[in-house]
Specification:
Blueprint lengths: L11 H48 L9 H4 L13 H8 L1 H13 L4
């Protein structure tokens, strides 16, 4: 049979057990709060980055610029930009210079 004596809640052994239990509950509570705060911080960071990157779309300026590629490239044909040598031909084309020259021609030096 088992011993059915009542528990002495005021004994030193029980006080130590209760103190350990309360300490474990406090640690659990603080670790839970730390986890919630960390996840909220990551969420706030993610939202700030998304809003920051999305806001750039509203300040971005796009203009239509008509470029006569055969004249600007010295007579380049579409066939030169297809096939195995397409990447090399595209790199040799230097599109940034062509676009800058056409923008200066169309909008002026300050354009």
């Amino acid at each position: 049979m088992t011993d059915r004596t009542p528990t002495d809640w005021s004994s030193e052994v029980m006080r130590r057990r209760i103190a350990k239990r309360y300490a474990a509950e406090r640690r659990f509570k603080y670790l839970g709060m730390a986890a919630v705060i960390a996840s909220a911080s990551f969420l706030a960071f993610l939202l700030l980055v998304m809003v920051g990157n999305g806001a750039k779309g509203f300040v971005q300026t796009e203009i239509a610029l008509e470029i006569d590629f055969p004249a600007a490239t010295g007579g380049a044909t579409p066939a030169q930009f297809s096939g195995p040598a397409a990447d090399a031909n595209m790199k040799n084309l230097v599109l940034a210079d062509i676009v800058a020259a056409q923008a200066e021609t169309e909008f002026g030096a300050d354009g």
